[in-house]
Task: inverse folding
């Protein structure tokens, strides 16, 4: 969740952190004449995720939370983000700070949940009210349904892979998998495939 974007214009290229790029619902920091040239997503450490669907897969989430265990560089090793809570997905630095090591205690987890709820400007719209979102964000996690892992930071370049990755995406409603995508592939080149 340390993604960044390379934005290109006639004046050159600038790199913007994803959290700074998104300003609000349908708002970005993209300037006139700029295009997204590249999206940089660091290869994560092995991880698992919890997933619970209560509505159709193509519906907009009322609340979504993503947690990732990042490399420890003196900061909290956790990256936590929430979507459907504020006008656009947000990192939750207060919740991250409550988790100071890779194996937090139940008390530290409770503190992180408390900080996530208290540190968010919960929106109220036609999909869900502020109190319901507060309940969802602070509620118990669903059971683990799926596991996904990638090699750790000591295997290969850029903290995890040899450079070529399989990539699955949905194009015109159909899922397509590209078996080997070089790590330095530009977004425009990917769309041409």
Result:
């Amino acid at each position: 969740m340390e993604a960044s974007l390379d934005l290109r214009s006639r004046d050159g290229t600038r790199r913007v952190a994803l959290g700074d790029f998104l300003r609000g619902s349908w708002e970005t920091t993209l300037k006139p004449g700029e295009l997204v040239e590249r999206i940089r997503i660091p290869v994560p450490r092995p991880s698992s995720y919890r997933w619970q669907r209560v509505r159709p897969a193509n519906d907009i989430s009322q609340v979504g939370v993503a947690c990732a265990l990042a490399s420890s560089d003196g900061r909290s090793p956790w990256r936590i983000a929430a979507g459907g809570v504020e006008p656009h997905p947000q990192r939750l630095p207060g919740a991250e700070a409550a988790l100071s090591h890779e194996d937090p205690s139940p008390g530290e987890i409770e503190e992180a949940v408390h900080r996530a709820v208290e540190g968010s400007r919960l929106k109220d719209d036609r999909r869900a009210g502020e109190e319901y979102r507060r309940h969802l964000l602070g509620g118990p996690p669903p059971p683990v349904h799926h596991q996904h892992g990638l090699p750790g930071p000591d295997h290969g370049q850029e903290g995890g892979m040899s450079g070529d990755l399989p990539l699955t995406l949905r194009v015109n409603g159909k899922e397509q998998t590209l078996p080997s995508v070089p790590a330095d592939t530009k977004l425009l080149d990917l769309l041409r495939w």
